[in-house]
Amino acid sequence: MLRDLWDGLPVLAQDVAILLALLAPLLLIGGFLLRGFAPWPLVRAVLWRFRWANGMFVALIAISVGMGIGLIAQERGLRQGTAAAADKFDLVVSAPGSEMTMMLATVFLQPSDVPLLGGQAYNTVANHPNVDVAAPLAFGDSYDGAPVIGTTADFARHLSDDRIEGRMWQSAFEAIAGAAAPVGIGQTFTPAHGMGDEAEENAHELVEFTVVATMPRTGTPWDRAILVPVEAVWEVHGLANGHAPEAGDQLGPPFDAAYFPGTPSIIVRAEALWANYALRSEFTRQNEMMAFFPGTVLANLYRVMGDVRQVMSIMSVVTQVLVAASVLLGLFILTRLFRRQVAMLRALGAPRRFVLSVVWSYAASLLLAGTLAGIAVGVGATAAISTVVTQRTDILVNASLGWGEIHLAAAFLAATSLLSVLPALATLRQPVVEGLRA
Amino acid sequence: MIGKAQTSSLLALIAVLALTMPTAAAEDHGHAHGAAAHDEDHAHDDDHAHDEDHAHDDDHAHEEDHGHEEDAAHAFETAGVKIVHPWMNATSGREALIFLELENIGNGSVSLEGAEVPFAETATLVGFALENGEGRYRDLPFVPVSPGRTLDLAPEGLAILASGLTRDFTEGQTVEITLQTSAGKIPLIVAVESETARQHSHAGHNH
Lengths: 438, 207
Description:
By secondary structure, chain A is α+β, with helices and mostly antiparallel strands. Chain A is 56% helix and 11% strand. Chain A is elongated and about 110 Å long.
């Protein structure tokens, strides 16, 4: 019954309920200790009097909480960023081999030498009644570090959600640049053969592409890419251009199997959700071709990452326990610092619960300040790291504060605040007379 | 389904509760168990034809309690459809995914439409997709399979999602379900693998 009720709640309600449950013991003990008292002027005075020691404490807690939070937030940011990069790639058909290699090549534009699919295979895919878009890709060339990729107009529209600025290419040597590509509309470029340091600058000397459009930013590695008609890439490499000679300057499908030089992968898009799964079984043919969902490959990767994350989470929990222990120890020492003041209070006839409330409020204030600062440290660190990752990989990684982090922080705060009742109790055990002499 | 982040925060919550209110936590536990047991009792009352606990229904050839696991078949064939290696993970939760391989060995297209799962409230054909970095299983109406092709139901892919489970499942058990296809209904015996298994323990064998 309870389980059904819980499962029936919206996710937000579940998250809020967990947070409240985590903070409840804190509020209960606070309410019990503080009821009817106003210890704040005294607490403020103690906080100010020992501000350096207190500051160190808060910083220590902040860094430990921040580490834990940063870890969870960064992992989620990376996961969401990489998953978003695969959004446009429902199903990929390629020659049999490693799904991971092909996924990296197509979704993240990290091409490696892979076998090609021939014209027959391409036509089998393209002519299937459930297939709406079947885009061949041609990798290998680059310009100024940006990959130049041959494909079809349909794929360019699909990739940009049909929001191309400028016009679609009308001849083989026109190009569409990604938002982060080093060329803009109206500019011309000559692609180099290959990528990176090994690129041969002069291999395609006589070829010049003109950029006629740009695509909006997608937050994926494709932002750096320059798309050109696949026919142009084939022609530049001295291959047939996918069409019979009598087809003239035709661009895009249908392709003639006899003049199809081959493609490392075909991006397949189907309108109906179920069709993707049917097509996967359709195009999985031993020794001929394979079909895979980049999302599934990524999910498997996340599963491995999840295991690593759990190990790291345990490490960060252990760190926090250690910090909590040292906080406790520190509080014992700090309470010795104002031993005389406490003895004075008690000599003046302050009730035990009042003394307890002062010492506990002081400890809880340090913990609360440290935890809040820790959340800020965690988000700040995540934002900084995410910016670097986004710059280096073009994968948009957002730093955001999720419920997992808030729960972690709340659990830390609740547990340490409860434990800090112990040093508060310890101050009560100190004899008043000795305290006054101290 | 409960995500990993939620699980860890739940653990944190339990830790805090355990620290502070051991008695209250224990009480909660008792309640949860009580509720589960209650549900099971209901399942027994109902007339579930394929319930394993009704082992005395003699007309069911593949009762779990008969200890037929050794000779339980891993391949099932009906009307041009061959099902190989149906399996699920052991669970005490409310949901389970059932996986299998469906081979179309006939001459016409066959659609997988769903399943009748006697130990669950609902059973639907679902497909995996990443949404915002989190995996989701979305309902699918059917998936057609051409002659000579195999449809793979596997983790992070296609599956039969059984929700509202009426009992727990432990490794080594077998359970009966009926697959619904356009070629007719196919009764199957599903092997329960470990909680963390990623495939049928006989995967890779030829049947």
